[in-house]
Predict the 3D structure of the following.
Amino acid sequence: MVRTNILQTPIDYLKGVGPSRADLLRKELGIHTYQDLINLFPNRYLDRTRYYKINELQRNNAEVQVVGKVVHLKTVEQKNRKRLVATFVDETGQMELVWFRAHKWIRETVKINKPYVIFGKTNWYNGFSMAHPEMELLEEHQRSLQTGMQPVYPSTEKLTNKGITNRVVNKLLQQLFRETQGKFFETLSPDLLEELKLMPKSEALINIHFPKNGELLAKAQYRLKFEELFYIQLQLIAKNLSNKAKIKGLPFEQVGSNFNTFFHHHLPFSLTGAQKRVLKEIRNDMGSKAQMNRLLQGDVGSGKTIVALMSMLLAIDNNYQACLVAPTEILAQQHFNGLSELLGDMDINIDLLTGSTSRSKRKEIHEQLENGSLHILVGTHAILEDKVRFNNLGLAVIDEQHRFGVAQRSKLWHKNTTPPHILVMTATPIPRTLAMSLYGDLDISVIDELPPGRKPIRTVHRYDANRLKVFRFIRDEIAKGRQVYVVYPLIEESEKLDYKDLMDGYASIEREFPKPNYQISIVHGRMKAEDKDYEMDRFVRGETQIMVATTVIEVGVNVPNASVMVIESAERFGLSQLHQLRGRVGRGAEQSFCILMTGHKLSNESKTRLETMCATNDGFEIAEVDLKLRGPGDLMGTQQSGVLNLKIADIVKDNEILKAARYYAIRTMKEDPSLSMDKNKRVLYTFGQMAKHKNIWTYIS
Ligand code: ADP
Ligand code: MG
């Protein structure tokens, strides 16, 4: 069916494209083949379904098209500047067309008294005028495909300057459709097309480039967006399934004495319904014969740690070791302390490995890891080093995923001959749509319930001018026995100005809260690790009432008695960072507060961030707003944005289409994992081509 593939023809061969244009198209738009050109989707459309009469024009600078004739052309000179002015008429009135450049060319080409269709933006000054209109003879216009909504293609300054205007791109596409007769390989299965009433591929491509009206355009857009997202999902799901099929896992067959002892005698509270559900999902995974690759999502304070610990106990019950990797030293230390405390007198050997672990201690850890007597190792990236070898690693938990690269994750895979189960925990929620696209190859568990009895944190926005009031409030809270965080932005730990702000802030807080009544801790990135630990410890033990810090305390730190979080220059923090910082309070039984301090000058985006923080405590909701404000690439960092290099779909706006695409991709894969059923022939073919060419999926029949 599939002929030699015309669409793979180099763009140079298209009529109207010479070597120099081909070069520009390649360099500026990445268009190498016919295929690439046809997948150059418009950014937006101008409505050219309507023809205006001159007496219908409004004084609103709209883009309109008018049918009429040029009856007169003259050059006007004013202040040494020449312009060419045409009088353009229809049966209802007259207007002026104006050119400031290309006079000669216009004079030579414009035909007097012939019907034209003109298109452009209107101006009004003692009558209507249009500068540099697009002009086409009416008879040509009627023959051209271009009559409905006019696409506007992505372009660059260089392209426009070299004469590859939107119109030229359009003409090239018309030529391409002529050469290929507009017949393109259908990429979706007939039953999907039928069930979802999707527009066939060829029709969709014609309508995306030459839509006759808004309705057809919308259908074409839906179809192409669906297709794009469907194949991304299909790839992710196939990868997940093939991992499961191919990657043998360590079977954890039993729930043993460690898990049970902990559950019955050490668990300090009852698990929430969500925690139980998630634990069951993890247990099922690890009990199956395949390797677990699971993402655990939960809001700040939702209790992910206990889930991690109980999963690790399952590993130990099955004679495997476990490790927990955290992004910072402070956090690793906290996890180590917290887990040790939870385990109490249980016969579990747990230890801590970080960059600052002493040589002798390190040696001891290595030995115990290799002879299997160490059950749980908590630590930082130090765990990933090749020289850290386990006797039998069964489960690796990674806390706070966003600071970890995929490469680092895979290092853990190689810590055992059969790869250990992997549990990735996120620091803050990721919007559903993004999680589906970025982690579609991981199974996802969500803790969507906070432990009972938490009082929602009250968040307010205060201006710097009201600082004295804020200090008074802090004093009252301290008098009640509470502790307070004051956080300064130090985005780049090396930035001198930020550092000065922090130190000035610290000095003013020392003045307001003098010794010996008050004790203040300070923690920032320029301090030595042991000094940080010392200061942190004093705060954890309640010896200091105020912790002045930078974002080093952002992640995971747990001091339940701290009930006030003051964030200085709050406008400089991103939403997820603000939410993460706020999550440091509200961990005890007391009412907690978050105070966002800013100056008076705020951008609209900053205002939205602050308002969102004051309006909701829900991390999933905040993540959605964040995604809308910042866009997907920014949110996840560049190394992961590759998946999001979408041609037509928009991961934020096309949320609903994404859900549908994922649903049908899962259904297709469940029903026919090898895509060998007759109805999936086109899907299999397209899928294979994609793997070969990466993101190429239009084929001619
Ligand atoms: P995060 O999901 O942010 O990592 P943590 O695991 O640090 O949250 O848990 C936050 C706090 O909630 C901890 O003090 C923990 O002991 C407590 N906690 C966790 N689960 C429960 C529960 N089911 N009931 C009561 N408190 C809980
Ligand atoms: Mg945590």
